[in-house]
Amino acid sequence: MSSRSKEKVTAMFRKLFKSSNKEGEGPSKPTPSGSGSPARRLLRGCRDSVSPAAPQSTTLSPGFTANKGKKGDEGTSHKTVRARRLMKEYRDLQRLQGSKTDPVFSVELVDDNLFEWHVKVFKLDSESDLGNDMKELGITHILLHLIFPENFPFAPPFMRVISPRIEKGFVMEGGAICMELLTPRGWASAYTVEAVIMQFAASVVKGQGRIQRKNKGQKVFSRRTAEESFRSLVKTHDKYGWVTPSLADG
């Protein structure tokens, strides 16, 4: 190739490079959105149009609750547990009292209702004031009334004294009984009815209980009064714990 031909070829390459730079395809200049190769335009379009993935919603579909059973199923389960536990305990206590000629206490259903019991406590400390009062007045037993809630044995029974009327001895208005064992905080599902009754027999003597001989000026000895007294008791002990509050606080 002659020198003149080489100069012509060089001049043509220079023109081509200048034309390419003017159109924006040089490496030092950004490429307009409408120019460039089809592959580059496609990649650029993807970058512009793709947005971050939206976080997955944690809201559950209507009518579904996570990790929670139906209330009806839970209630049925509690009732089944209550019935089985009470049936077993009632049979055991019946067997126990049938095997002794002079049982400490006896149990019987109220109107054949498994969830409501009458308990007769026959034996207390014979040297206690309460024991002497019972002998003097010819009272053979203390009658207790127990009601078992639907969530027993995970909640305590409600227990009150029906007769005779006892003052002091941790027995309150209406026959309600002040025992931590009978409160939600003091209760444990492992406690048996027998343990509750024996605890009462010890507490009523320890609290220096006596048979009330005068009824004048006293509130009605009823279940309603007992329930009101017990609710007040629970509130007091929730506030102060199981200590006696000062007189200033009532």
Low-confidence stretches: 19-35, 37-69, 244-250
What is the beta-strand fraction?
A: 5-15%
Radius of gyration: 43 Å
Overall shape: elongated
Helix content: 40-55%
Task: Give the strand tally.
Answer: 6
What is the terminal-to-terminal distance?
Answer: 122 Å
Helix-strand string: HHHEEHEEEHEH
Mean pLDDT: 77
Number of helices: 6
- Strand line-up across the major sheet: 1-2-3-4
Biggest sheet overview = 4 strands, antiparallel
SS-based structural class? alpha+beta
Question: What do you see in this structure?
Answer:
Helices cover 40% and strands 12% of the residues. The strands form two sheets. The chain has a four-stranded antiparallel β-sheet with strand order 1-2-3-4. Strands 5-6 form a two-stranded antiparallel ribbon. A hairpin with a 2-residue loop joins strand 1 (105-110) and strand 2 (113-121). It is elongated, with a radius of gyration of 43 Å. It has helices at residues 3-22, 38-49, 71-98, 129-137, 193-206, 223-240, and strands at residues 105-110, 113-121, 142-147, 158-163, 166-167, 210-211.
